[in-house]
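Folded chain entry
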Amino acid sequence: MPLADLPGALLEVADDLVQLDARRRARASLRRAVSTAYYALFHLLVRAAVQRMFRNQADRDSFGPAAARGFAHDAVGNLADDARRHPQQRRQTTNDILGTRVPSADLRAVCEAFVATHAAREAADYDLAAAHRKSDVQGVLLQVRGAFEAWTRVSKTDEGRRFAVAMVLLARQRRHAQ
């Protein structure tokens, strides 16, 4: 599946998983829905960063998948956590790219959703004692849907473009040839 189609498809899968009502599998389905919703948002932001890296479609098709694999979840989470803050509370490297304006409501919504769903995904995938209620998982999906809508708006602005560039510069893991 092309990277362009992946975020929306993942969000649809998360919706489907929440609707599964088999008693025996409900707990696993709810955990999987949280994780899938997180990956939908992660790939939405990665897609934007890859589009910044490769301006023409041929290059995105050729090099985009490899570039997308280089984004580190924790690094994207750290950037989102930093970007949602007032510029006086952010790291200088973030301000160097984003500028020193207070983040818009839309960028804050995207970043807060990313930070929250990243933590929720960690709990869903690794904390076996954590209980997941359907209403809580629906809340996670609602927040991710809101982040998709906010990203649609902010991605067309200078602030959104700067955030995508920040991902390229600050959220990629270092890989060394072996």
